[in-house]
Write a structure and sequence with these properties.
single chain, L-fuculose-1-phosphate Aldolase, eight-stranded mixed β-sheet, about 15% strand, binds zinc ion
């Protein structure tokens, strides 16, 4: 295994062990040369073996059959030339938020804490598409030009980062903030003000 493959396998094992995704859900990728290495379709992030190589155009170049979401990862890499990794999970609280009625599609969660603003920022909600539906590709690519974290309606989060650690940090912060938001649903809540948010960027 190369260093990068080992890092993807280690991150998958860590996320799975902490139940940030379950069963055979979720997929991870990291940019390499003109494309990216991605977890294969139908596997568990708890036991990542050989990886698939996919081009930025979304073509399968080498290795096992890639994740059905490889086209989405490709869309995020194209939209964000600074992105070195992409993580998609079915983390419970973020998925719960993604099923809520009445979310703001431009920014699904309020800025509850400074850490959330710094790690996640704006969170566009993308309309529901079945997993693997390539029609979501152009929508995700457009949204990812101005936000590195996206919430797929009735599905879950997908986040790009400078590298695997940054993408994992951001998606974990998103999961914890989703949990806080659900905990606070019935209570009067005071998110950060626009000035407080601005002072963090
Ligand atoms: O929700 C789904 O089916 C996919 O988005 C997913 O999480 C796992 O699919 P593969 O990466 O193709 O295993
Ligand atoms: Zn999924």
């Amino acid at each position: 295994m190369t260093d990068l493959s080992q890092q993807i396998a280690d991150l998958g094992a860590s996320l799975f062990a902490r139940r940030l995704t379950h069963g055979r859900t979720g997929n991870l990728s990291a940019r390499t040369g003109g494309g990216f290495l991605i977890t294969p379709g139908g596997g568990s992030l708890g036991a990542v073996g050989d990886l698939s190589l996919v081009s930025l155009a979304g073509e399968h170049l080498d290795g096992p059959r890639p994740s059905k979401e490889a086209f989405l990862h490709a869309a995020l890499y194209r939209a964000r030339p600074d992105a070195g990794a992409v993580v998609h999970l079915h983390s419970t609280h973020a998925v719960a938020v993604s099923c809520h009625a009445g979310l703001d599609p431009d920014d699904a969660l309020p800025p509850l804490t400074a850490y959330y603003v710094m790690r996640v920022g704006r969170l566009p909600l993308l309309p529901y598409h079945a997993p693997g539906d390539p029609a979501l590709g152009p929508i995700a690519e457009r949204a990812a030009r101005t936000a590195h974290a996206l919430l797929l309606a009735n599905h879950g989060p997908i986040v790009a980062g400078a590298g695997l650690a940054a993408a994992a940090d951001a998606i974990e912060e998103l999961e914890e903030t989703a949990r806080l938001w659900l905990l606070l649903r019935e209570r009067p809540t005071r998110p950060l003000t626009p000035d407080q948010v601005r002072s963090l960027s």
